[in-house]
Amino acid sequence: MIRNLTGDIRAFTSNVFLVDGETTALVDTGANFDMVPTVREVTDSLDAVYLTHTHPDHIGNVDAVREAFDVQTWGYDTGNLAVDRRIDDGERVQIGDDVFEAVHTPGHKDDHLCFFSRGSGVCFAGDLVFANGGFGRTDLPEGDRGALVESIDRLREVVGGDLTELHTGHGPSVATRPSEDLELAARAARTR
């Protein structure tokens, strides 16, 4: 089961997804609110935290979550203090009941990862793409529009026709025709 724990939060934060099953994990930790009691309303333990990237709005609660749940964080850049263990491009990790492939998708930030499960069709897209054809900002440090377009194309290639759910770093998730939103983002990133 996938739950967005930030639905009622009124702060500048990323979405935070709790995924339970064989392993219980968070995808991103959000920022600017106390995440620990929010997680504890649903579970007493976490097996891992997976970071899509290390912008402050996605990792602000990392230290509190690590301490409260004695859990390690996984991400692309172990040079960042928020990342305990590295996930390489193409590496597979267990999130909930599914195995997800980590897809390195720079452009919004150099350490950006998406996580895609071919078995379930679920993708955690971080800030690469959003609902209705939105895409990640490239005006921040490490932002690069050309790299972002290449990363969106790469994600489209990886998911193929298997995408059933798109969980994004901000805004609503997409469970109805998510491939269309991904295609819209690919076109919009080329023209805006």
Describe this protein's structure.
With 192 residues, the protein is of the alpha/beta class. The chain has a single domain, classed as Metallo-beta-lactamase, Chain A (4-Layer Sandwich), CATH 3.60.15. The chain is built from five helices and eleven strands, in the order βββαβααββββββαβα. The chain has helices spanning 35-40, 56-59, 62-69, 145-159, 178-191, and strands at 2-4, 17-19, 25-27, 48-50, 73-75, 85-86, 92-95, 98-104, 113-116, 122-126, 165-168. The chain has a six-stranded mixed beta sheet with strand order 1-2-3-4-5-6, with no helix packed on it. Strand 10 (122-126), helix 4 and strand 11 form a beta-alpha-beta unit. Helix 4 packs antiparallel against helix 5 (178-191). The radius of gyration is 15 Å and the shape is globular. It starts with a strand and ends with a helix. The mean pLDDT is 96. It holds the Pfam family Lactamase_B.
Terminal-residue CA separation: 35 Å
Task: Please summarize the sheet with the most strands.
Answer: 6 strands, mixed
Which fold name corresponds to the CATH topology?
Metallo-beta-lactamase, Chain A
SSE string, helices as H and strands as E: EEEHEHHEEEEEEHEH
Shape: globular
Identify the CATH homologous superfamily.
Answer: Ribonuclease Z/Hydroxyacylglutathione hydrolase-like
Helix content: 10-25%
- As a whole number of angstroms, the C-alpha radius of gyration is 15 Å
Classify the secondary structure makeup into a structural class: alpha/beta
> What strand order characterises the main sheet?
1-2-3-4-5-6
Mean pLDDT: 96
Number of helices: 5
Q: In CATH, what is the class? A: Alpha Beta
Which regions have little confidence, pLDDT < 50, spanning 5+ residues? none
InterPro entries: MBL_Glyoxalase_II, Metallo-B-lactamas, RibonucZ/Hydroxyglut_hydro
Domain Metallo-beta-lactamase: 13-170
Cofactor: Zn(2+)
Organism: Haloferax volcanii (Halobacterium volcanii)
